[in-house]
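Hey, resending since the last one bounced:
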Amino acid sequence: QVQLAESGGGLVQPGGSLTLSCAASGIIFEAYVMGWYRQAPGKQRELVAAITSSVSTNYADSVKGRFTISRDNGKNTLYLQMNILKPEDTAVYYCNAHRSTAWGTVNDYWGQGTQVTVSS
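The structure tokens again:
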């Protein structure tokens, strides 16, 4: 059974920092592209950052220079270091594991989400 368990969310003041973690089980972690998505009230879920098994990264323009995604394949854990947080970063943050194989199989798993609120 695949489980993606996010942690680290909470309430933080503007300009503050938080680190999110996602512990994965039930998958071959290093075979998956891992990503963080977020969904604010009334908005669609959007990609925040993604990281491949070869540690190639991709960021949404809105978080470039402020957020850093990383992974520890030995611990099956994904991280998102968030600095200089803004009120518009307020959202539920979701961990995603994605794999597409050469023969057309697609595996896509989601965590339950963790709330991040940036407010004074």
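The mean pLDDT is 96.

Sorry for the duplicate.
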